[in-house]
Design a protein that fits this description.
This protein is of the alpha/beta class. The chain is 34% helix and 20% strand. Strands 3-4-5-6-9-10-11-12-13-14 form a 10-stranded mixed sheet, with helices on both faces. Strands 1-2 form a two-stranded parallel sheet. The chain has a two-stranded antiparallel sheet with strand order 7-8. Helix 1 packs across helix 2. The longest helix has 15 residues. It starts with a strand and ends with a helix. The structure holds iron/sulfur cluster. InterPro entries: Aldolase_TIM (IPR013785), Methyltransferase_A (IPR040072), RlmN_N (IPR048641), RNA_MTrfase_RlmN (IPR027492), rRNA_lsu_MTrfase_RlmN/Cfr (IPR004383), rSAM (IPR007197), rSAM_sf (IPR058240).
Length: 353
């Protein structure tokens, strides 16, 4: 069975032609999948019965089943838990920003990167998500919310479970589908890929002509090398110095900046000295970066604590005093589970009980 959402537009056209249908059928099918967001071939009413029958025999559309969701009473964020065809589960988070909605999608079941502060990585990597499983997180949540203008998801961040650039091909194809004018039609500038800093994959993404240009965020989380390799083992080979060298050279569209994410952990990387070191890392090229400070959200069994607000503000002040654009991201939906991956873990315990 071919899941049609595993095909980018070119592949969908090839599939249509291989079946002896005119090319324009690809546009029609894409409209039903990504604009109307249908769940069955019978809903594709402008296709002939024969075409629908062939599609039913050869293809499938759905890859996710909603197991449960939780909505935050604080800010309305919603965390969705999906079951995949093989029984694995993943999470997606809908974030209600002031003027828009952002969807945080997962790209892997688990993660191999092993960041010390991260809940998702506790069980290691189970598998990469298929393109359809990434795209369906958006399709299913948008269907759940309804089509009204105020419910439209405009932004996608690849910041859920997994390291997106370790699932390069499927992530690339999902971005092609999200941005294609005959598919999801989302704006390139409203999609952000967040990486832990795999240097060769970041380079590859920027050199790849078929990878639609979208924004890049990198998890920095440290102000010097030994701190970073302690928190993020990936930094033992992808060093902070090499990472910053690469980020300083990447070609950026006018007005675009790279986001540096910095999870603030009490007494680990949250001192004023850390902030000053961070300034030194950025200051020569401060116009190409902005910094997101994310106070750590403790989860049961985590080794780390969240810094007091005064420490977070003092850290931020050092950066602003040096004219570095800095924003504090107080985590959304703190009441619906602190860390990404926790809802999944809870449900697994429940299912296996
Ligand atoms: S923070 Fe991201 S890259 Fe690091 S272990 Fe967690 S999911 Fe993987």
């Amino acid at each position: 069975m071919i899941n049609l959402k595993n095909l980018n537009f070119k592949e969908l056209e090839n599939f249509v032609v291989e079946n002896g249908w005119p090319k324009f059928r690809a546009k029609q099918i894409a409209k039903w999948l990504y604009n109307k967001k249908v769940e069955s071939f019978d809903q594709m009413t402008d296709l002939s019965k024969e075409i629908r029958q062939t599609l039913k025999e050869k293809c499938e559309i759905n890859s996710l089943k909603l197991l449960t969701y939780q909505q935050s009473k604080i800010d309305g964020s919603i965390k969705f838990l999906w079951q995949l065809k093989d029984g694995n589960t993943i999470e997606t988070v809908l974030i209600n920003e002031k003027n828009h909605k952002t969807l945080c999608v997962s790209t892997q079941v688990g993660c191999a990167v092993g960041c010390k502060f991260c809940y998702t990585t506790k069980d290691g990597l189970i598998r990469n998500l298929e393109t359809a499983e990434i795209v369906d997180q958006y399709i299913n949540v948008q269907r759940f919310l309804g089509d009204e203008e105020e419910n439209r998801i405009s932004n996608i961040v690849y910041m859920g479970m997994g390291e997106p650039l370790a699932n390069y091909d499927n992530v690339k194809k999902s971005v092609q589908i999200f941005t294609h004018p005959d598919m999801c039609k989302l704006s390139h500038r409203k999609i952000t890929i967040s990486s832990s800093g795999i240097l060769h994959q970041i380079k590859r993404m920027f050199e790849d002509k078929d990878f639609p240009q979208v924004k890049l965020a990198v998890s920095l989380n440290a102000s010097h090398q030994s701190q970073r390799s302690y928190l993020m083992p990936i930094s033992q080979t992808n060093t902070l110095e090499d990472l910053m060298d690469l980020l300083r050279k990447l070609p950026l569209k006018p007005g675009w900046r790279i986001t540096l994410e910095y999870v603030l952990i009490k007494n680990v990387n949250d001192t004023v000295e850390d902030a000053k070191r961070l300034v030194n890392l950025i200051k020569k090229d401060k116009h190409r970066f902005k910094v997101n400070l994310i106070p750590f959200n403790p989860y049961p069994g985590s080794d780390f604590e969240r810094p007091e607000e005064s420490r977070v503000l003092a850290f931020e002040k050092v950066l602003w005093d040096n004219n570095i654009a800095t924003f504090i991201r107080w985590s959304k939906g703190r009441d619906i589970d602190a860390a990404c991956g926790q809802l999944r873990k809870k449900e697994m315990l429940f299912l296996n009980a």
